[in-house]
Each structure stands twice: as C-alpha cells, then as structure tokens.
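Researcher: Here's the sequence for the chain we discussed earlier.
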Amino acid sequence: MRQKLTILIILSLLALAGCGGLGTDKAKELELKEKELALKEKELELTNKNPKADDSNKKEKSEKTETPKPLKKVEPPSGATVAIINASDVVARSQPSLTAKKVALLKKGQKVYVIGVSDNLVVWEGESYTMKNVQLENGQKGWVLNRFIDEN
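Model: Thanks. This is the structure I predict for it:
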C-alpha cells in the first residue's frame, strides 16, 4: 500500500513538472492531489506505527463492555454512600478520565456504592464534572462521571 502511494506521489510530481504550459488551474489541481496523497501517506505511516488506530472507531462502536453478572453480592464498603445510575449505558472506567479503559457498562436504576471522588475536573459536552469512584454490588470498581449518579 505504501509503495502504491509513493508511486502515485511520484507520478503526480512528474505530471506537475510537465504541465508548465497547461495553465495554473491544472497545476493547482495537481498540487492539491499531491498534498492529498502526502496526507494519506502520513496517515498510513501513523496507522503502521499503531495498527489499532484505524480500527479504533470500529472497535469502539462494536465493543460491548458489559457488567458481568454478579456471582455473589459483596458487602458495601465501609463509609460508602448508596447511589443510583440515572441514565442507560453509563460507562465505568479504570481511572478518573474519559479516555481510561472501560471496565463496566452500567444500566439505568443500577445501585452502586460511591467510595470516592476525583480531584480533577473532566469536561464532557462543554460542562465540567468530577468523577466518582464506585463499587458495584458484585465488588467490581470503576470511575463514573458524577452527572450520571444520583446519591441518596
């Protein structure tokens, strides 16, 4: 694939060099094509460095991170506050960041135990929020945007 892009760039350069008398519109068109090919080559290089990069959107859409069925309920952590998830398909993450690994998918009405709050603010849809460290009834822990938690 990289060789094809390189060949296309070389051909574009040759065509650009040979179009001296064709007018500036044709030269500009070829120059734009050359730039487009150069951008595609850079994108390909980045993809080759990180092969998962081009599939990230596909994986994110198809990735289903679901909360495992509770095998057993564990005791609520000492000092925790009971809370309810107020939206469907809320993602719990491994760290208090919107880019951290997804660890669970929470459902509307699901009970969680709030065991902590992040120090940093996270911006989501133009608003700033903290993230809350929660423990699920099965003992699994994660971080959830406080917008999606209603504490009792």
